[in-house]
Amino acid sequence: MEDAKRNEQYNKYVSAKIPKTKWWPSLFNSFLVGGVICLIGQGINDLIMLGFPEMSQQSAWAYTLIILIFIASFLTGIGVYDQIGKYAGGGSIVPITGFSNSIASPSVEFKSEGIIYGICVKMFTIAGPVIVFGVVSSVAVGFIYWIISLF
Amino acid sequence: MPIFLDYLWVFLIGGAVCMIGELLIITTNITSARILVTFELVGVFLQAVGVYDYISDFAGAGVNVPIIGFGASLAKGAIGAVKTNGLLGIFTGGFTATAGGIAAAIFFAFIFALIFKSHTKK
Q1: What digits encode the pLDDT tens for the residues B90-108?
Q2: Phi, psi torsion values for A95, nearest 5 degrees
């Protein structure tokens, strides 16, 4: 009983201390930044298709994403992306650049703990779940399609 | 001005997807790992039921750049590999399709982590 009461008090304390984000400005910022990141992606993709017209649509998108990931990792390295993140919230997390940032940011931050236990281990603190769920769900989808294809 | 309209849709749809993410963050205090996983699974689902390609034709980078597109390639890779390789494709398909993105993210993060110093102690 005592514990439950204390937990409840603690939860109240935490929710009082969590910084309240203002709804409309943060929604607008995330819309703006997310939209601009997608525009940059579309621009890169169109340039690739313009320069290499024989390339397949799928390869062009793969190059586009790799270029975006490169830019986001670099901006994370010089500390700019996390500044954008403070301003944009979901706008900088949801695009693939957010995935890239979630890998690069902890690797830069925990560099001081060494290459193995710092960079390589901390790299997957956020990306780990994304990769695990990606593998599990794609195997599930593949399995379902394999079953369907048997009939 | 068809190209202008295309870019307008990319901006509006991409922005809207990100805004839904921000809305989830504000209302439920969800962590960024959960946001990424949620949107990834949405992409897997949309591709698995076969509607993703229609959305992608229309929205372009508006859905391909958000992590929804990553999820969609996972599912697309798995389905395609099952069609060509059968049982083995279940396990190889997802990673094969997304290998470029995952390898790039890990490689660049590693290189830039070696080059740059932490910025949090400013």
Answers
A1: 999 999 999 999 999 999 9
A2: -65, 165
Average pLDDT, chain B: 90
- The DSSP output letter for A95 is B
Provide the 3-class DSSP secondary structure of residue A135: helix
Whether the per-residue pLDDT at A14 is higher than 60: the answer is yes
Please state the ipTM of this predicted complex: 0.91
Chain A hits for B18, CB-CB cut-off 8 Å, are 30-31, 33-35, 37, 88, 90-91, 93-95
Domain segments of chain B as ranges: 2-115
Residues of A in contact with B57 (CB under 8 A): none
CB B14 within 8 A of CB A45: no
CA angle B108, B25, A32 (to 5 degrees): 70
Nearest CA in chain A to B3: A46
Minimum CA–CA partner of A29 in chain B:
B19
- Say whether A79 and B75 touch across the interface (CB within 8 A): no
Distance CA A40, CA A109 (A): 27
pLDDT for residue A124: 93
Burial class (CB in 10 A: 0-12, 13-18, 19+), B84: exposed
Nearest CA in chain B to A62: B100
CA distance A133 to chain B (A): 7
The distance of Cα B50 from the centroid of its chain, to the nearest Å, equals 16
pLDDT in tens, A37-65: 999 999 999 999 999 999 998 899 999 99
